[in-house]
Amino acid sequence: MRLYLILFSLFIIFAACENSTVAPNEEILGLQFFPIDFQNADSYSVEEINYNNDGTIDTLRYSIQDEWTDSVAIDNGIKLEGYRYNINHNGDKEIVSTIVKTRTTNLAKLKLGNAEEVKLSFPVAEGKSWNGKPQEFEEDEFTISGAFQDKELADSTFENTVQVIQEDNQDSIASYDQRIEVYAANVGLIYKVSSQLEFCRETECLGLQEIEFGKTVRMRREFN
Questions:
Q1: pLDDT by residue (tens digit) across 115-129?
Q2: Domain locations in the chain?
Q3: Which of 37, 77, 78, 92 could form a disulfide with 104 if both were Cys (CB 3.0 to 4.6 A apart)?
């Protein structure tokens, strides 16, 4: 009888272990770099420099704000849906596009309108690479460089950040393509630069990296 009770107890223990699930350690995975917060809007200051074909340069400065209208539970994660607004100097808001922010235990995605990118791949690790645009015909490799590092931006210091290199081609004599994003723990995106320029390719200017046309956009997180 005693042996029967011991075997029965062991069976109950093993059955409980098989049916239990261990919650993932969010900090080890790096989920804190892409927080999901339905209550708070994400605001950014933007500087946009347009290099025109006629040689003129236009510089625009404005703010954008991501506001959430719905929160949806999905497998192993959560999804926020809302709108991205352009805010002018008078405080007037204009919808730029829809926005969907998704985070699972495997990846973090951001969708603006119909364009979607995999912003982070979990677990976060130095040198880790993934296809940032899986819906595109050609693979676009994103790479983590500078994981869990301090970062100074303007007047602020962030103690725990991760930098994602989407593209950093500065050596071409025909074009320049630099796209970098920086994420801070429990904050999210704090800095982004996207600079895509085309250089003069005529004989007299080839290799001098004289800009013919292109655009540079810098975004910085704003805190109220």
A1: 999 999 999 999 999
A2: 25-66+123-222
A3: 77
